[in-house]
Amino acid sequence: xxxxxxxxxxxxxxxxxxxxxxxxxFGGLSLAQLIRYFLGADAALGAGSVTVRDIRAQTxxxxxxxxxxxRQRELxxxxxxxxxxxxxxxxxxRQLTIARESLDKIAATRGMTSTDATEKLRQxxxxxxxxxxxxxxxxxxQATDQRWTLMDSQCTSLLxxxxxxNIRTDNLDVVKAxxxxxxxxxxxxxxxxxxxxxxxxxxxxxxxxxxxxxNAARRLARDAVRPVERTFEAGQTIIRSGEVLxxxxxxxxxxxxxxxxxxxxxxxxxxxxxxxxxxxxLSLAVLHSSGPTRVSLSRMFLSAFMLILALVLARWLLxxxxxxxxLAPLIAIGMVIGTWMGGLTGxxxxxxxxxxxxxxxxxxxxxxxxxxxxxxxxxxxxxxxERISDFVRAAIIALMAQLILLLTFELPAWQIxxxxxxxxxxxxxxxxxxxxxxxxxxxxxxxxxxAAGVTTPLLLIExxxxxxxxxxxxxxxxxxxxHHSLMVANLAxxxxxxxxADSLLVRVGAYYHDIGKMTHPYFFAENxxxxxxxxxxxxxxxxxxxxxxxxxxxxxxAAKFKLPREVRAFIAExxxxxxxxxxxxxxxxxxxxxxxxxxxxxxxxxxxxTRETALLMLADASEAIVRARRPxxxxxxxxIVRSLIAERIADHQLDxxxxxxxxxxxxxxxxxxxxxxxYHPRVEYPELPVTVIGExxxxxxxxxxxx
Length: 707
Hints:
The strands form three sheets. A two-stranded antiparallel ribbon has the order 1-4. A two-stranded antiparallel sheet has the order 2-3. It is mostly helical. The protein is built from 27 helices and six strands. The radius of gyration is 49 Å and the shape is elongated. Helix 21 packs across helix 23.
């Protein structure tokens, strides 16, 4: 009754935890999809953000746009030309006076009869207010008095005419450029060039920028612009998906209370439905890969948490990242979940992750396919984890699949745009994402194994090394038990592979299931090399308790050396609540072959909770019995294994481990095949006559080696 009540409580507790896990997963998936309404690119849309969906006006609304009004005012102000003061007559008079003085000096220099031409040129080039270049000075000296008189008059009139117009600093060059066109055609090209040089040298600005008048005009222009009103009808698209927001767009979202994407009841229902379907698909995958009731809750929780965390980060960070979205190391999530929960669950999680992530970014179909294919291929390529290089190989294969898919989507667009930079950036991001995935997958598994006590393949690989301190102690202190553990490991591992169970976990569990025997190795037959059985000198109950102690001693050593919980389960459950048969038989014999209470002779348990620990229980007992009885034929071995399995079923030892009768039949066949190879009969070698050759004693005939 107590055992039945305990079993019911265990089942109820397990089912309650499963319900809690389902609620956690459903809530987490829903949160992951709704996160963009509160965080990230869609949460607080700002200038430069890229929208991931169309945003429409909820009702008809109008508002005065400060952005558009200011823009129109800036345009009106910029259209006002700078205002300058009127032409200053004093400037014109001053320049004409300078011109008259300079021209008189030129005439005086020309009239010098006692000065040679070279000196005249020098004096013409050194006139203070009218520096002339050498060519112009030569033209002036070569001109006749009559022509010079005409040139002098032309310079004065042109300068007077030009200075009557408004000459500003910014149009001085324009006024100078007009001078050649104003010269009379009676002058030769050389004379016109000299006149142009004299006049343009004397031209200076005669007006200045009127700051106050210009500012006043610009203020009037700004004030004349009326406020700009923007109106949106109900349902009108304000911003389309994929557009980069400008200041006016952000203002429109603020005024219409749409800067944060509004959550509608339709959005909520879609999210809840998507989460429910995703949870159903994940649950079916877990049930198909792990059995209907007994699954590793810790691994399930970590897998759900990892999937939810990846989706939250993806929906928060990836929208609008363009090439940066390919950098996301989502391949790692598929490999981690596949390592924890098996290939089917890993593939399912990878497909869901790709679909849900793609819904939150640009180019949804391409993105969803990219993420899903990468995760699925990585899980399928990972298969059985034996070393860290397996993760690298799987990541490389997944990356190749992603690159093929990426080129399939990108090359048609590239043929049109010829945007090689974007294509190269996308490929580089995908390569970087694959490298990061290969690097962080072992890191995630190691950290979770250390921090959360989850038995990861990397941890099991480390524990399987014969250099582990516990195994080294067992080799030296209990060599018989160590050899027995190796045999049991081979037996259970082969059966686990046939069932699709965790064969690596079974092998490591078998290595450590009997470590408690190191405390008192001489109490166990495999370590009694002298043939004396200590138990013959003990009463049956004491003998039974001594044998029971190797379980509690083993758990103490496991805690001391911090073996993971799933490995410790093999120590506690490998005998379940079975009886110590030899001690109980002696007790019955001492009681005149009358039945006695067997409860003191039973191991403390618990009974096997998983298929893996149940396989070890059957393998442990089968190996011990076959080794003790040494059957002479496969039929006898089969009968021993068949009887043992039936005995364990009848004793209710396999009630909690979810091994079906079909699976037990596969276990029986596997055990018989393996035991036949381990304990097959050998041909006895006959003694051979010896031939004496000199001082050497050699066999007359060397027999052929027999297996």
